[in-house]
């Protein structure tokens, strides 16, 4: 049990350790000692940022051997962070060291040039903006940004859009169960946004505006979630079942991979690593047992092998009838 907890906490620790080190270094640049020795403080902070990000990359890489381009990117990111995050006097001292600035510029140029060549090749091969940007920026960051961009488009520009049902496919809705609960959360969040803004504005207008922006983003995210649940139903086409839960889950299950279909599963079973639970804020009423494991890629690229797929439909009977004729 302890080994499992440590293995799960490992990625979080690898993310937090460099952030904590850089944050501590940033506070140190605001000290009197740093103000009295700005050039030394600038070099130490630059080394800290580059070293922390590079060591985190090495620790996460397979066999602790990251590629040369990835290591170059970590060092370039450290240069940018050190320049932006340092205290004013320390930053000015760093910018006055022309040889150091030239070395930082060459590092950044080498990484960007190398990455642009690979990005251009990727674009020509795939025409995928996400994969192209993933050659320049961290892939998980690009995936997160693309997902958030899609959610904002859903919230703001999808009104009046028809559900995504390809020709020849039959759609099965699940939004009538979950959307009323999300709507209740949305109303509570709107009230919270107003109350928090009024209270915090008495202390700091800037902090109130930041919290207001975050609150509006959260409210739009809930609106987008409701829209996605309606516009992306579960599908049965000529070859299999496409299990979707808005933009969160999308798994295609071929008919020949389905061994059985049922409607009962316990809460404990839905939390198993080999069970994909696509029922959001509700309990599944349909369970597909697979004849062979299928790989599912989750949010931010996490992969696992699935043996059962559980989800909830507003009307499960028509789905049972349609699927029984296919398997």
TrEMBL record:
Sequence intervals crossing the membrane: 41-58, 70-87, 99-120, 141-161, 181-200, 207-226
Q: Which UniProt keywords apply?
A: Membrane, Transmembrane, Transmembrane helix
Establish whether keyword Transmembrane is in the entry.
yes
Q: Highest taxon of the source? A: Bacteria
Name of the featured protein: Mechanosensitive ion channel
Q: Which organism is it from?
A: Qipengyuania gelatinilytica
């Amino acid at each position: 049990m302890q080994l499992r907890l440590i293995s799960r906490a490992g990625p979080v620790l690898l993310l937090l350790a460099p952030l904590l080190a850089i944050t501590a270094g940033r506070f140190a640049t605001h000290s009197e000692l740093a103000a009295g020795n700005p050039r030394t403080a600038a070099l130490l902070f630059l080394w800290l940022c580059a070293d922390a990000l590079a060591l985190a990359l090495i620790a996460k890489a397979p066999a602790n051997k990251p590629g040369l381009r990835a290591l170059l990117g970590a060092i370039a990111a450290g240069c940018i962070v050190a320049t932006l995050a340092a205290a004013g006097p320390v930053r000015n001292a760093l910018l006055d060291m022309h040889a150091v600035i030239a070395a930082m510029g060459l590092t950044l140029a080498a990484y960007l040039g190398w990455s642009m060549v690979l990005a251009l090749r990727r674009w020509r091969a795939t025409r995928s903006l996400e994969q192209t940007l993933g050659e320049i920026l961290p892939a998980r960051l690009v995936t997160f940004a693309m997902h958030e961009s899609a959610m904002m488009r859903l919230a703001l520009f999808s009104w009046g859009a028809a559900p995504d049902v390809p020709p020849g496919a039959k759609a099965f809705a699940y939004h009538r169960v979950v959307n009323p609960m999300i709507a209740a959360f949305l109303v509570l969040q709107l009230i919270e946004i107003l109350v928090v803004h009024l209270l915090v504005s008495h202390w700091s207008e800037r902090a109130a505006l930041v919290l207001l922006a975050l609150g509006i983003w959260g409210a739009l995210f809930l609106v987008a979630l409701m829209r996605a649940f309606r516009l992306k139903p579960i599908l049965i086409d000529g070859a299999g079942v496409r299990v979707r839960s808005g933009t969160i889950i999308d798994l295609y299950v071929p008919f020949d991979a389905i061994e059985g279909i049922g409607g009962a599963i316990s809460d404990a079973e839905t939390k198993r690593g080999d069970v994909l639970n696509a029922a959001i804020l509700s309990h599944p009423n349909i369970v597909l047992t697979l004849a062979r494991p299928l790989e599912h890629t989750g949010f931010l690229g996490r992969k696992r092998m699935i043996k059962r797929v559980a989800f909830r439909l507003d009307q499960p009977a028509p789905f049972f009838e349609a699927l029984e004729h296919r398997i």
